[in-house]
Amino acid sequence: MDNKRGSRFQNTWKNFRFGVAAQIVITLLGFVSRTIFIHVLSEDYLGVNGLYASILNVLSLTELGLSDIVVYSLYKPLAEGNEKQLTALMGYYKTIYRIIALAVAVIGLALVPVLRLLVKSEIDQYHLVLYYLMFLTNSVCSYLLVYKSSIIHADQKRYLISRYEMLFKFLTVALQVVCLLAFRNFTVYLFIQIAMTVTNNLFISRKADQLYPFLKKKEPLDQEKKKSIFRDVRYMFSYKAGGQLLNSTDNLYISSLISTATCGLYDNYLMIQGMVSAYTTIISQSVLGSLGNLNATAEPRQKKQVFDAYSMAFSWIATFCSAALLVMYNPFILLWAGEKWLLPMQTVAVICLNFFLPNVLVPVWNFRNTTGLFRETKNILLYAAAINLVLSYLLGVRWGLTGILAATSVSRLLTSFWFEPYILHKKVFGTSSMPFFLRQAVHLSIVVVSFLLISWVGRLAALGPWGDFFLKGILCVMIPNVLILAVNGKTESFRYLKNKVLEKFRS
């Protein structure tokens, strides 16, 4: 058992190191690309970029949550070395993903006639349709070989995929920057994205074939297993559909109720948040394979110990990042893009709340996906999405952008935020979920206190835009982390994580 624990930690650490290295490169390149984008093209193009990405996110619910089911179903045969079962599963998933790619293409094409109802832009109709079809093509291509990356994820080798992501992101951004500077052409910009998506998937597919040569064989999947997969997919579809509707309709409301250009303003904030979220995703993806192995082999007591430590770490990260975003968003946007790209502070606060709430739930989601709690949570995000669809309109009409974004937080708080931790603790750990909620309340309070303290110091110092930016940046590193350490420093979860890290550096 100790060897298994050590192996899980080693794989997690390797995935994390490669993921961070890749993401640093991706973040820097993405920032360079966006900087040139907003200076070369208008906010209408940025708004269209954000709106079409949201539409395609909604379309991706046709995937039915299959990716999570795929990875979950591979944990056990990988742990047992059951090549026959792995071959049968992967062959089955290959067929399903091709059907999904076709479904996305058909549904996406059916939406072309309604684009004029969603887009309020100065860009002519021909190009609006062309850009949408290119977004759709990129989405369809992404499904064709993606199933092969699942076995690499499940086998705790996420770092291999990070290498390719880093390489092709570099090539994508480099080519797109040259395209923008030389041609100022959004069509070529999107074509490069499609070409790199296809090439990246081809390389990952080839790597999977090298690592698992037995996948080239053909094995039938028994009917019982197919029924089990379809049952879990049915449960996960409801969950994923609700999640996509909850997270991907904001830009649709913003574009139709306010303007497509406002989507462009909001998209800059989302881009920065996305860069931060990418690092939390690295941690999440790095540990996912190890959690799958843990939940397939360990006792409930050990699972709870790991969950508590994992949850504390993510609460810490979400708190620090939320406080930093709340304080630094507008000073950064002001220096980077200019005053015309700023959003009001109350809107920024809601954007940060929309970041905090899902991020503290990441450990809950990962444990749900690796313990198979699909049936219990199948409808909760559909309820959240239904509430959000109504609230977004009502609050959007009354308070504009702030109201639309606030509806997402309210909908989440009323549904998944309390229910999912409750059901995980009850079904998997057999314990109360109250300590989890108390932790999140304390950490959210730290975000508010940190913002108030840093803003107060900033007003007293009055150092001008650049001085204010650097002063607040230094304080953002210090104040939230000191407060978080004061709250968590003596807990069992903190000691567990500290010992794990120290063991790694001693070895």
Structure description:
This protein is mainly α. The protein has a domain at 299-507. The protein has 21 helices and no strands. It has helices at 2-40, 43-59, 66-80, 83-110, 115-118, 125-144, 147-154, 158-183, 186-211, 223-248, 250-258, 260-297, 300-336, 345-360, 362-371, 380-399, 401-414, 416-429, 434-461, 464-488, 492-506. Helix 11 (250-258) packs parallel to helix 16. The longest helix has 39 residues, at 2-40. The two termini are 18 Å apart.
Task: Determine the N-to-C terminus distance.
Answer: 18 Å
Helix content: over 70%
What is the multimeric organization of the chains shown?
A: single chain
The total count of helices amounts to 21
Helix-strand layout with pairing:
Elements: H1 2-40, H2 43-59, H3 66-80, H4 83-110, H5 115-118, H6 125-144, H7 147-154, H8 158-183, H9 186-211, H10 223-248, H11 250-258, H12 260-297, H13 300-336, H14 345-360, H15 362-371, H16 380-399, H17 401-414, H18 416-429, H19 434-461, H20 464-488, H21 492-506
